[in-house]
Specification:
21 strands, elongated, alpha+beta, single chain, 4-stranded antiparallel β-sheet
């Protein structure tokens, strides 16, 4: 009886609802709602674009504290790869290295999904470069301190127990480590960390807090369980009554079949209201492309990593140090004014004139301060390997010079660059003249008591006190460079400041040359 009464009532209500859905007023309201839902993404995209432009303009002016939040809000409204690249660049310039590093990793993953291989490689290279400079903090918890309920936080964020004792990347600056546990006094410590620095903080055993409320004894839980069991007992009767109510519901459910037919008409009206939504979605597709536009993409290329494979590398710098010349033989000019004599038995003694072929001057070793410069031109074969040509040159105070160059290779290990250079070139030294000697022909050595050369007959005071002796030399140099500052940017000034030393050893045609230049250089990437 009751079910037969409910069925006509439910069918009537559903048919009335269907008629209201077909009314013009309801259709207009539905269309307005669909249009607002479709337009809102376009409005969010426009706001995101405006915020991104404002952030980039502020970043160019050096106002990073204002620029980064705007770019971050732009990315929240419209997450795009171009915006994430700008955000990571802003945080890197701001000195938040760990934040920028994680954003470059996210950018690499996003670019890989988009199929943008150039942006993916650039993001990976930027992240690898930052990883070398990341500060790392280790928060350790000894066994004695690991009490039940212990919670450790870093700058207010919980530190999971699985990461205790592990070095984690962190932004340079001041940070706060705290620990708390039920019934224990809270502990806090501040730590300051710099770029590339590694520090560790150990959480001590927390002292007991006498003012904390005592924890309830386990025995008190038993009465509570008994009370809960007693309370749950009457529910069994209620469950029995529920079966009867459920049986009555079956008849009411039968009336729903007829109501479903009326619902089809209401669904038809809904289709007409949904049409404006599809029309309004068109502007959004034009305004918000899935991939970064071609106008934005070159920005990622211009800001490529210094050690990005295939990039051009140029390094110039000034150097100073010591130049040691061990050139013991050579010529100091016209020797034709000198002569020397040797035995030519049985005819007697022969006086022979000097020239550059048979006579040479001898010199003392020369050492003096050296000042000059160096240059390297090459290409980055990988993120860590640079290959090219290096030149060294300069002037030795007191007289002399060094001009050499050759193929060079540099390999990076953390903040150190180690390299080798093959050198060939000219070396000159102004040294004291100790005399002039003339050569004896090899077939007459036996007639001159086995001597291969003799002193030249020079009048007293005719020899110069010092003279410039020059020679062609070849050898090599070892590079040891320390990265003082990495200064990546999207302009031509992107690069790194290096403190370098190039111990050099060379063999001349007559003697040796040793140089030890040290200097500052800038490697443009």
């Amino acid at each position: 009886m009751l079910s037969s009464f409910r069925r006509p009532l439910r069918v009537g209500l559903l048919r009335a609802a269907a008629r209201r859905a077909r009314s013009p007023r309801v259709r207009i309201a539905g269309a307005a709602l669909a249009l607002s839902l479709a337009v809102s993404p376009g409005v969010a995209f426009a706001q995101a674009s405006a915020l991104l432009d404002e952030g980039k303009a502020l970043m160019k002016k050096g106002k990073l504290a204002e620029a980064c939040p705007k770019i971050e809000e732009s990315y929240r409204l419209s997450p795009r790869s171009a915006t994430l690249l700008a955000l990571a660049t802003c945080h890197e310039k701001q000195g938040k290295l760990a934040t920028a590093w994680s954003e470059y990793i996210d950018l690499s993953a996003a670019a890989r999904k988009e199929g943008n291989k150039r942006l993916e490689a650039d993001a990976k290279a930027r992240g690898a470069r930052l990883e070398l400079r990341l500060p790392r903090l280790t928060v350790s918890v000894p066994r004695a301190a690991a009490v039940e309920g212990l919670e450790v936080t870093l700058d207010g964020a919980p530190v999971d127990s699985a990461s205790w004792g592990q070095a984690r990347p962190i932004d340079p600056g001041e940070h706060k480590v705290s620990a708390s546990a039920p019934g224990r006094k809270k502990w806090e410590a501040s730590v300051s960390i710099k770029r590339g620095e590694r520090k560790a903080v150990a959480v001590p055993a927390l002292a007991k807090d006498g003012s904390a409320a005592p924890e309830p004894a386990p025995a008190e839980e038993a009465p509570a369980k008994e009370t809960a069991a007693a309370t749950a007992a009457p529910d069994k009767g209620a469950a029995g009554e529920g079966k009867g109510a459920a049986a009555a519901g079956k008849g009411a459910a039968g009336g729903g079949k007829g109501a479903a037919g009326a619902g089809k008409d209401a669904a038809g009206a809904g289709k007409g209201a949904a049409a404006p939504e599809q029309t309004a979605a068109g502007p959004e597709e034009d305004a918000q492309p899935e991939e970064p536009s071609e106008a934005e993409e070159p920005e990622a290329s211009r800001g490529a990593s210094p050690k990005h494979a295939g990039s051009f590398v140029l390094e110039v710098g000034a150097a100073g140090g010591a130049l040691i010349g061990l050139i013991d033989s050579g010529s100091f000019g016209d020797l034709s004014t000198y002569s020397y004599s040797y035995n030519i038995l049985p005819e007697g003694e022969l006086i022979a004139p000097c020239n550059d072929e048979v006579c040479h001057a001898s010199f003392e070793p020369a050492i003096g301060p050296f000042v000059g410069g160096q240059a390297f031109v090459g290409v980055a074969l990988s993120e860590r390997l640079h290959l090219g040509v290096r030149a060294l040159g300069g002037y030795r105070f007191g007289g002399g010079y060094l001009v050499v160059g050759g193929p060079s290779a540099s390999l990076r290990f953390g903040r150190l660059w180690l390299g080798l250079t093959g050198l060939v070139g000219a070396v000159g030294q102004d040294a004291k003249v100790t005399g002039v000697k003339g050569e004896i022909p090899s077939e007459l050595v036996d007639h001159n008591y086995g001597r291969t050369e003799v002193d030249v007959n020079a009048r007293e005071g005719s020899l110069p006190e010092t003279a410039l002796v020059e020679t062609l030399a070849f050898g090599g140099s070892v590079e040891v460079s320390l990265v003082l500052a990495d200064l990546p940017s999207s302009s031509w000034t992107s690069g790194a400041l290096l403190l370098s030393a190039w111990p050099t050893f060379m063999k001349g045609l007559d003697g040796f040359v040793i140089a030890a230049p040290v200097g500052l250089g800038y490697r443009f990437y």
